[in-house]
Fold this sequence. Notes:
Beta-Lactamase; 12 helices; alpha+beta; 5-stranded antiparallel beta sheet; single chain; 2 domains; 46% helix
Amino acid sequence: MTDADDRRRELGRFLRARREQAPRAEYGLPPVGRTRDTGLRREEVAYLSGVSVTWYTWLEQGRPINPSRSVLDAVARTLRLSPPEHEYLLSLAGFGLAPLAPAVAVEDAPPHLQRLLDALAPNPAFALAPDWGIVGWNRGYADLYPRVAVVPRDDRNLLWLVYTDPAVRELLPDWEETSGRFLAEFRAETGPRAGDASVRALVERLRAASPEFRAAWDRYGIGGFESRERRFHHPRDGDVRLEHHQLTPSDRPDLRVVVYTALA
């Protein structure tokens, strides 16, 4: 199966999830049967988008068709996708802002990036690979999350730790909200690379290990990153408020630097 096949399948699953979650009352449509007030029929989405039912069905089925940008925009408007969801849909169809480069496995942050992380201390900072593997960190982050230095390399992945490490769950008083937001950001970033071996393996492991992940993954939440306040419950320092930032090195656009700065 090719990368294009994987993207078409992901696009179809995403559209189906959004269609099935759409509140019928917001479209002026009656419930289906006596109780089902959520979910549009394919025929309804096709009519509202100005496309044929057969064509839209093929789109959800991941058939090898080539939808135009204007048609995808119409479907996005019908399903009332948010801007990150709309961009996700376009990227799966090959209308991303830039061509996707092949993902390259990263095990450790390059030396110059590690020096940057160290210079940012005492602010907690770490570096993420394309599959969200944690490939470098500074002493500030090790103080916030001491287990980062001892977890096995294969488990040193931000999404894996959020959903499987009890220490991370204790660290996050708003774990449910934060885990869902991380997952939405992860999916937005990695969806066009759904066929990458590292991404596919991580998702399969998490689906097997975490019922919460499995349920959230099937809801197809999509969200872009925004700098924001984060709350932590540190075992030594108690409740801590930090601001969450994310940077992309111009010479290593495949990596991201995450920095937490203090809030007054």
